[in-house]
Amino acid sequence: MVELIMIHIQTGLKDITGYIYPNEFELHWGLLIVVYPYLTGLVAGAFILASLERLFKIKVLQPVYRLSLLSALAFLFVAPLPLLAHLGHPERSFEMFLTPYTKSAMAMFGFVYAWYLMVVLLLEIWFDYRKDIVIWSQEKKGIMRFVYKILTLGATDLSEKSILLDNKIGKVITIIGIPSAFLLHGYVGFIFGSVKANPWWSSVLMPIVFLFSAIVSGIALVLLIYMVSTMFRWKTMNMSCLNQLGELLLYAIIVDFSLELLDFIQRLYESEESIHILSQMISSRLFLSLIISQFILGSVIPMISLVWARFGRVPDEMRRMVYFIAAILVQVGIFSTRWNVVIGGQLFSKSLRGLTVYKIQLFGLEGLFMAGFLLILPFIILYILCKLFPPWVDSEVKLH
Amino acid sequence: MKAPRIPKKILGLAFIFSIVIAALVVARMLFIPPSFGKYGHYRADAVNEIVAQEINYAGYQACMECHDEIYKPKERSYHKSVSCEACHGPAAKHVEAPDEFVPGAPRERGYCPLCHDYNPSRPTGFPQIITELHNPGKACMTCHNPHNPVLPHTPEECSACHREIANVKRISYHASLPCVRCHTVPEKHMVQPKFVFAQVPVEREFCGECHAEGAPGGPDIPRIDLDTHGERYLCWDCHYPHYPEAR
Asked: Which of A13, A337, B35, B47 is the most buried (most CB within 10 A)?
């Protein structure tokens, strides 16, 4: 065992440059902590997209309204799992609800999560689907009829007044939901931004950058899910909806990219003592994931291609292709953003004199396979949700 | 006047939310230990449980009472801040029954390297060895007395302890100067470095011996007018002589 550890350390030491403290050799926040902000970002982004349709009455987005709500829910179910797997002892997680500790942001996450799940997403989805659920509880047969019946909570009133009330309450929840979505993902940025001792993290811009990157990734995710699901349902895509999504995605990337650049320029100009090691890290360890993946593949190329596809004279088919590729690139870019924040913040020594390395493990609770599973799981949940509550415009129940 | 009827859906939701909240309240009643929160955000009984644990360590004061012939020299040695029980292990039982329980002493080679094996994170000047190369097979105590560890022979070069400075100086303009050109080093500093210190220059004129106008030496040495350059400041207020950039 000791020999194994020594071999592990010796092979690792070869990749270390400069001087690091002994406790910096092993990174404590690994791949799962990269997955966690990525997932919560998708939740917040998808919800904010849904609220654009509802609150700001962007009617062209109707085809993706319910889809984005369900996507947000599916990803929200999975969002805390990387944390539970990373910390171990998931059976203890309920204790933070029993003895709330307001001085720790991490201890309050359970409440932020519960609020968002119970008061925002589930309620909004329920009020939006209520009339459909009532109708399905009358039309469907067998066990599904029973399931829908329970889901109506006994409220089977479908009068015009009642539907109007549903809409009104839904709207109020959306209004509460937007700051809640900001809170959910701003919180994740806050956790990193408030680590004073880490010059790569400690920035007041962190929650805001996280938030806008969340919106970018959420819009791109819904765009992808909408395109793929429409394709598999053999339906035609609503081009004006896609154009609107593409346009929103473009604007969100521009804001996000400018904020990130602002943060970058500010750091360069401030030129604190950490700048040497950070620039060394960017040009060596993070070159691929920051410069190539996050900046070029994840921001610049999608921006240019979206401008061309949305505002140029491009046939619809080409446009769809560009949107699709841009959305995939954006996902790669945003995942890299999370990687660069989480892993990047631990790659340089607090002595500011050396760099360490991160090696992903394959198996185990914190391994690559676990991360892959946690990234696939929301799609499985979304598939089940879509079967239970079809989000498509053509399957929505029409009354009166 | 008739009270407004609460819609059924609101009642249904209220019912579910009240179940969740009630479950939380019940769970709080069941799972939170009664002493939780008495002193702070933790279980107060835990303190008593820790207090009730068996005491294993006696503390160096207890050792001192009987073993002052060992403690006295140790107090003045390099190991003055290392507690007795750090090497000898917990000795509370020994204090209670000195003859029945005798604490051990690590005599094998593997123990001292826990602190003295080479590790770049250790402070400059901290005595370190590469165990595999340092007198293989010999027990440390053959040459070193752990209660008063002094080097078996005095270091020949300043860099043995001042390695960081030596490394920087090596690539500075002063690389060719021996340390003693500027520092007066009493013989005893080699043996008792913490009690007898080496001296550093105190006057501007000292640097002037090489850097004043008209001082002897080659044309490459930077020269200044001591009367006008830097006025009342000492040279090393601006120029750290060990650094390569000291121009």
From this structure: A337
At A354, which helix (H) or strand (E)? strand A354-355
- What's the confidence (pLDDT) of residue A291? 95
Q: What is the pLDDT of residues A184-240, one digit of tens each?
A: 888 899 999 999 999 999 999 999 999 999 999 999 999 999 999 999 999 999 999
pTM of the predicted model as reported, rounded to 2 decimal places: 0.78
Residue B107: pLDDT over 90: no
Residue A362 tokens read as: 């394959």
Whether the CB of A19 is below 8 Å from some CB of chain B: the reply is: yes
Domain span at residue A305 reads 22-395
Q: Does position B247 have pLDDT exceeding 70, yes or no?
A: no
Alpha-carbon span A259 to A253, nearest angstrom: 10
* Matching residue, tokens 């408030």: A194
Question: Rounded to 5, what percent of chain B is helix, strand, coil?
Answer: 40, 5, 55
- Minimum mean pLDDT among A11-15, A42-46, A335-339: which range? A11-15
Q: Give this complex's ipTM.
A: 0.77
Check whether B246 has a pLDDT greater than 60.
no
CA dist., res. A49 & res. A62, Å (int) = 11
Query: Looking at the partner chain, which of B20, B31, B121 has a beta carbon nearest the beta carbon of A21?
Result: B121
For residue B9, the distance in angstroms to the closest alpha carbon of chain A comes to: 5
Phi first, then psi, for residue B56 (nearest 5°) are -105, -35
Residue B71 makes CB contacts below 8 A (sequence gap 6+) with B60, B63, B64, B84
Contacts of A129 in chain B (CB under 8 A): none
Q: What percent of chain B has pLDDT over 70?
A: 96
Residue A24, token pair as written in the block: 């910096």
Q: Are A1 and A51 spatial neighbours (Cβ–Cβ below 8 Å)?
A: no
**pLDDT, mean of residues B56-82:** 92
- The closest of B150, B163, B151, B155 to B80, measured between CA atoms, is B150
Give mean pLDDT, residues A22-40.
91
How many structural domains are present in chain A?
Answer: 1
| Sign of the dihedral defined by the CA atoms of residues A239, A240, A243, A244, in that order | negative
Check CB contact of A2 with chain B, cutoff 8 Å.
no
Q: Is residue A43 part of a domain?
A: yes
What is the pLDDT at residue A26? 84
What is the least distance, in Å, from the CA of A29 to any CA of chain B? 22
The owner of tokens 């006295």 is B72
Task: Determine, yes or no, domain membership for A287.
Answer: yes
Give residue limits of the domains in chain B: 60-152, 177-238
Q: Is there a contact between B12 and A155 if contact means CB atoms under 8 Å apart?
A: yes
A155/B9 Cβ within 8 A: yes
Give the start-end residues of each E strand in B82-180: none
Token pair in block for residue A51: 């609220």
Contact A157 B9 (CB under 8 A): yes
Please count the CA atoms within 13 angstroms of the CA of A199 that sit on its side-chain side: 20
- pLDDT at residue A312 greater than cutoff 60: yes
**Buried-state track B98-113, b at ≥16 Cβ within 10 A, e below 16:** eeeeebeebeebebbb
The string over A246-258, giving b where at least 16 C-beta atoms fall within 10 Å of a residue's C-beta and e elsewhere, is bbbbbebbbbbbe
Residue bearing tokens 């770049």: B120
Cα pseudo-dihedral A8, A10, A14, A17, rounded to 10: 100
Are A98 and A362 in contact by the 8 Å Cβ rule? The answer is no
The tens digit of pLDDT for each residue in B15-41 reads 999 999 999 999 999 999 999 999 999
Minimal C-alpha gap between B174 and chain A (Å): 25
